[in-house]
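Work through this:
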Amino acid sequence: MNGFEATVWRVETAGRVLAVRLMRRGVPAREEVEALRLAARHHQPVPRIVATGAIAGCDFIVMSWCDGVTIGDLLVTGGDPEGLGKLLGAAQADLHRPIDESGSALCHLDFQPFNVRVRDGEVTGIVDWSNARIGDCRDDIAWTQVAFELAPALLPDLAADVHAVMTGWRGGYAEHRRLPDDTELSPFLAYAAARQLADWDERFREDTSLADVAAAARDIRDRWRG
């Protein structure tokens, strides 16, 4: 599996199934490793770190492989969009339990259906922690909402399901933790859209096929920036 920051391989060895995450040259793994360890200490379903190191100038992380499939894959193959969205929202609400007296939470900042694995209706793994940090959970909620709003441009085949997934996500989150309304979230939504627009520009500047995604991100940014 290829991403911008890393490539991930599923490896079977000595009776174990592992994930080997090789970072792109110049992308350090240290912060992701720290985020995974912090999430594990707070009882989140994350891969267990087996080893870390570097090879040919690239950092790597060897982790346990999380069973199941991603919520995104289930949506693509016809899964119940509202039910899967509800599962996603409940998992994010649990992630946002305060971890200190200030009320700060662990923010994944790429919390979307293709980064949450499930099996038999249970979350088995939250993966790809390269953007994670401790902060205001509204940052994380806004990032996820903007990702949903960009989904029709990114994945046209799922456009018809996005509303149902978002409805489920909101409901699943609100069952476990207060979900801020859009008025409260507006500055966070504007910032999340601007950040995602900058990421897309950095990664895919030469790919004209993604012009619709960039245009959608600009529209979202401008709408919430007011």
About this structure: Helices lie at 30-41, 71-76, 81-95, 137-154, 162-174, 182-204, 211-225.
